[in-house]
């Protein structure tokens, strides 16, 4: 019973101590909200000031739409010599990245340069180049950037191994924390069920023997 | 004490991240840093061999060795490219100051390109007509405008993707130490 009271008392005190800081913990969130809002307003201002650019952008897009129509028409005419060449073509354009629309591959991208590169890949296949040679051809012009699976070297080592490292760190941290928590729980259980150690016995004795702490005796 | 520090940890992390993004945002806005710019694969090399006609003379075909006035800029442009029009005035200005600029008219129509030059001025000492984008592809061009900087030996020293401006000239090209 005494344990229970001291425990609940402790918890109350902790919560009371925490409350002002609890608000502080929310501060980043509040600041983030404020920053986001101010950005939205800033953007609105910019749009107001730059209507001409916006309309120019629209005209660029309409041009590229026209171009794309031509692209699609042209690409319907790709005459593969056999299904093997067709498969290689589709796997290559899926594996190469568009330098203009940078998070799309050549197959997905509508950029004029992607159309050119698709055509070039088709031409190179017709000329009888191997897949590896075509990848090298692209890399020589547009850099490792265009390879969706770049080779492992000093520049790409982070790219390849950072996820692994993060997973490792996370699982290690989790393991340590779980172990520690388990030890805490076990220690707690021992406290409740196990024998009272010598120090606590002594403390109990002094408390019981001490007349001054008796309540309502006088 | 360390518990208190722990309470502030999220705030500290937030402030650090916010600071980082703020600086990055500033650098992008000023054009100092372009996250989508790719480094050219041709730095330190000559431009690739080519065989293209001159814009204003379809009967005249030139090759790499015909570009013999170095140092020079090679500016990739087209009439369908809005940003090219934005930078055109600055190119005129550079040409007036004696900078040699070769033009690569990229995937364009001959008549429209000639009309553009007569209308907005011609900063180019010579314009190559790359209708199919063949030389562009070999140079790694992925959108106009792009500007290649060639030193006195004809080696590519720098590639600028996007609008050419005075700040690009001052901050990126002059530090290359080429004697214009």
Instruction: State the helical fraction of chain A.
Output: over 70%
The averaged pLDDT of chain A comes out at 73
Give the mean pLDDT of chain B: 91
Instruction: Identify the overall geometry of chain A.
Output: rod-shaped
Question: Residue share in helices of chain B?
Answer: 25-40%
Distance between the termini of chain B: 62 Å
- Write down the secondary-structure element order of chain A: HHHHHHH
Q: Flag low-confidence runs of chain A.
A: 1-20, 38-65
Q: How many beta-strand segments of chain B?
A: 7
Number of strands of chain A: 0
Report on the structure:
- The complex is a heterodimer of chains A (218) and B (180).
- The model of chain A is unreliable at 1-20 and 38-65 (pLDDT under 50).
- Chain A is built from 7 helices and no strands.
- Chain A has helices spanning 2-49, 51-75, 83-95, 112-126, 131-142, 157-193, 198-209.
- By secondary structure, chain A is mainly α.
- Chain B is elongated and about 80 Å long.
- Helices cover 38% and strands 21% of the residues of chain B.
- In chain B, strands 2-1-5-4-3-6-7 form a 7-stranded mixed β-sheet.
- By secondary structure, chain B is of the alpha/beta class.
- The chains are: A mainly alpha (218), B alpha/beta (180).
- The interface between A and B is medium-sized, with 28 and 23 residues.
How is the topology of this model organized?
The complex is a heterodimer of chains A (218) and B (180).
Chain A: H1 2-49, H2 51-75, H3 83-95, H4 112-126, H5 131-142, H6 157-193, H7 198-209
Chain B: H1 2-29, E1 52-54, E2 57-62, E3 72-77, H2 82-96, E4 101-106, H3 110-120, E5 126-130, H4 134-139, E6 146-150, E7 156-161, H5 166-173
Parallel strand pairs in B: 3-4, 4-5
Antiparallel strand pairs in B: 1-2, 1-5, 3-6, 6-7
Q: Any descriptors?
A:
heterodimer, A: 218 residues, 7 helices, 0% strand, rod-shaped, disordered N terminus, B: 180 residues, alpha/beta, 38% helix, elongated
Give a quick summary of the entry.
The complex is a heterodimer of chains A (218) and B (180). Chain A contains seven helices and no strands.
């Amino acid at each position: 019973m005494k344990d229970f009271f001291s425990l609940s008392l402790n918890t109350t005190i902790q919560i009371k101590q925490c409350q002002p800081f609890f608000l502080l913990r929310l501060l980043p969130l509040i600041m983030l909200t404020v920053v986001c809002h101010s950005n939205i307003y800033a953007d609105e201002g910019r749009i107001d000031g730059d209507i001409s650019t916006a309309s120019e952008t629209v005209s660029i897009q309409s041009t590229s739409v026209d171009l794309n129509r031509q692209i699609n028409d042209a690409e319907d005419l790709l005459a593969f010599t056999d299904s093997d060449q067709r498969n290689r073509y589709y796997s290559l354009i899926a594996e190469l990245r568009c330098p203009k629309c940078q998070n799309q591959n050549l197959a997905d991208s509508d950029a004029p340069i992607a159309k050119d590169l698709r055509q070039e890949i088709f031409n190179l296949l017709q000329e009888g180049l191997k897949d590896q040679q075509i990848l090298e051809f692209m890399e020589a012009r547009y850099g490792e950037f265009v390879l969706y699976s770049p080779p492992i070297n000093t520049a790409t080592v982070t790219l390849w191994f950072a996820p692994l490292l993060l997973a490792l760190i996370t699982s290690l941290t989790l393991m340590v924390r779980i172990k520690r928590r388990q030890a805490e729980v076990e220690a707690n259980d021992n406290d409740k069920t196990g024998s009272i150690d010598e120090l606590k016995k002594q403390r109990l004795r002094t408390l019981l023997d001490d007349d001054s702490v008796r309540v309502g005796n006088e | 004490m360390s518990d208190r520090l722990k309470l502030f940890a999220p705030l500290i992390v937030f402030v650090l991240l916010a600071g980082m993004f703020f600086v990055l945002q500033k650098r992008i806005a000023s054009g100092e840093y372009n996250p989508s710019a790719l480094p050219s694969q041709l730095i330190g090399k000559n431009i690739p061999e080519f065989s293209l006609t001159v814009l204003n003379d379809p009967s005249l075909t030139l090759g790499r060795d015909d570009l013999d006035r170095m140092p020079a800029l090679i500016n990739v442009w087209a009439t369908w490219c809005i940003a090219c029009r934005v930078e055109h005035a600055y190119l005129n200005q550079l040409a007036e100051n004696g900078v040699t600029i070769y033009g690569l008219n990229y995937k364009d129509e001959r008549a429209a390109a000639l009309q553009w030059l007569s209308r907005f001025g011609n900063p180019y000492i010579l314009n190559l007509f790359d209708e199919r984008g063949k030389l562009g592809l070999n140079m790694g061009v992925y959108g106009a405008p792009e500007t290649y900087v060639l030193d006195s030996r004809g080696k590519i020293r720098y590639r600028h993707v996007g609008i050419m401006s005075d700040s690009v000239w001052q901050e990126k090209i002059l530090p290359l130490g080429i004697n214009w």
